[in-house]
Amino acid sequence: MSAPWTLDPVTDADAAVDDLLARHHADMRAGSPPESCHVMTASALRAAGAQVYALRDEAGAVCAVGALKPLTDGPLPGPAVELKSMHVARACRGRGLGGILLRHLLGRAREGGATSACLETGTQDAFLPARELYAGAGFTECPPFADYRLDPLSVFMMRRL
Fold it and tell me: What is the pTM of this model?
């Protein structure tokens, strides 16, 4: 990753990160019925052992967030992580930040010993850019993993690391 962006783990509560995660949570809740919405709050991510990351601009403003949640029941054998809460702030979209964030998260997962990464995203048109980002990074559709169930509003994807 080149300047002017920095991407770092968020180990404690961070108001700007929590605000962007709260906006992501509200967006996801507004667009999906409760039984099809798997978004997690900042506190739920931390309670689940997820490592949250923040992508900041040169002024320190949070432009994007994402998390790696450890999985004990992934679709492939071996250690796995689930990508959670990948979100680029509206004002920062169109700059390739989602790709920067995704590459970083996959690298961190690999460094941490994970052999695969999984995710759940939506089937609605609003999720098309996310699905294209993930497919372009080598993710392919897979069956539901962990506690997920088949849902017409969900797509499950995975890739080896």
Answer: 0.88
